[in-house]
Amino acid sequence: MSSAEPVTGLILSGGGARAAYQVGVLAAIAELLPVGAANPFPVIVGTSAGAINAVSLASGAMDFRGAIQRLTAFWQGFRSHLVLRSDWPGVIHQATRFVSHNLMGIGAPVPVALLNSSPLRGLLNDKLHMPGIAEAIAQKQLKAVAVTAFGYESGQAVTFYQGGGTIESWLRHRRIGVPTQLSVEHLLASSAIPLLFAPVKIGEEYFGDGAVRQSAPISPALHLGASRVLVVGVSGNPRGVDPEQPLQRAYTGQQPTLAQIGGHMLNSTFIDSLESDIELLQRLNQFSHLLPDGVPSRALGAAPVDVLVISPSQPIDEIAARHRQELPAALRLFLRGPGATKTSGAGVLSYLLFEAGYCSELIDLGRRDALAKRDELCRFLGLVEPAVSA
Fold this sequence. Notes:
Number of strands: 10
Largest sheet: 10 strands, mixed
Helix content: 40-55%
Distance between the termini: 31 Å
Radius of gyration: 21 Å
Strand content: 5-15%
Shape: globular
Structural class: alpha/beta
Order of helices and strands: EHEHHHHHHEEEEHEEHEHEHHHHH
């Protein structure tokens, strides 16, 4: 790759089971690429469940199309018990421990977690080929891959990255970059949703979901050398709504349920920072074009960054509500009290519904949304023409 060629970064945001949407987008990209094409994303950055997708893609970067096929099969075969204890004894035991110690102070210290996500460790150890990252870097099929986690003691968003060549670490306000050899522990830490999943210890500090206090989700890709970025979001609110027109809806006047409150908190964690960062980057791009001729925009930190965003065209909450009966009985009962099985509380459900029907529908939606932007994707990736016609 010559220095004049753009370096494309892929941003995969967090969002629990919502990350299945990203797989559909990636599957569409694999269809658009010529047969045998190399990995089009030298820089891959993921957060939360997006970190799992990012590392899965990076570890299989030597065969991009094959990596997408494996990732698709991985999500299409999901069941809740592969990610967390969804059986009656497991759910009851974890809930009892959480209430007795964390709320009442009874018994020995236990992780702050409403759900037991221990099965996820075994799943990732079984499915991921972590040495593939180093191989892809050595063969110049990958420049760097990174995952972000949140340090509970430092209060920092820490981006752990593995890359080739000389990539300088960075230190910004409450966000740092740390070179390392990525492991399953980093993925478990990055995807540990606060209060729902247990924190994970890396070194001397416990870490949780990387979306917490991640004020600039796109920034790590730029630090790792990306000059343009494809952002795959998991927003539950379709883009294209006219901000000048107030939404017309009927209000029930009912008090919000615990799940409804929790859903908005999760959305603010996983979605708001990414969308704000995209908006900021687009404004900086506009500013760079207004600079007088001869003024170096890069020296001012305002070098334009080409950004393409693909996000759900349908409300994910509504999709989750249609699939709520797929939840195992124990989890369904556990979530019914807070209101997560009601339509108004489907926001929480959309993050925890690790079931094949729901994940497959999100994959299909992601593929359709990406192919709807076929022309933009082809221009962005430098493809002469799409490889598919439908």
